[in-house]
Amino acid sequence: MFVKTIKLKKAAAVLMYLLLALLIVFAVVFVINRTIKPKGIAIATQEEQTAFLKELGWETSPEPIDCRSVIIPETWNDVYTEYNKLQLQQGFNLEKYKGAAAEIYTYEVYNYGERKPNVIANLVICDGKLIAGDICCTELGGFMQGLAKQAQ
Question: Of 8, 72, 100, 106, which sits with the fewest C-beta atoms within 10 Å of its C-beta?
């Protein structure tokens, strides 16, 4: 049996440890950056927003019928808790945005099944990225669903 050992010079060993430390630092920064940065679809402009909704199969008003700024509350009531359950089903999570400022853009939807009136699309945008959204009917006894088009 042969055992081969490698002796590194002190400078080479230090260099190897520095490279290893640098690699670890890059890995940590990458992980932190991925968890802190808003994840979402970049749709800052109205054109990007309507194009996104069109990709999902929705025909909408060319401009929002409403746009309002909101602060996502730090403490949620039942409404926010239920709304976040819908968002979790779509791959979003508003928990990360508690206390953050956001804009809600509302578009009229023209092609919901059977040409149902009063159907709107809400897009919640934070720092130019989509962080939540829904399709809902504002009539009494209406509905709310995720952004993906479903069989109506």
Answer: 8
Measured over all CA atoms, what is the biggest interatomic distance in the chain, rounded to whole angstroms? 84
Among 123, 130, 74, 120, CA closest to 97: 74
Cα separation, 2 vs 19, whole angstroms: 30
The dihedral sign for the CA sequence 53, 55, 61, 62: positive
DSSP category for residue 140: T
Beta strand segments in the chain, E: 41-42, 66-71, 101-108, 119-126, 129-137, 144-145
Summarised one tens digit per residue, pLDDT across range 110-141 is 999 876 789 999 999 999 999 999 999 999 98
> Model's pTM, two decimal places?
0.72
b/e string for 42-80 if b means 16 or more Cβ within 10 A?
ebeeeebbbebbeeeebebbeebeeeeeeebeeeeeeee
Q: Which residue has the tokens 């050992």?
A: 5
CA 91, 130, 150, 122 torsion-angle sign: positive
Asked if residue 145 lies in contact with residue 134, where contact means CB atoms within 8 angstroms, the answer is: yes
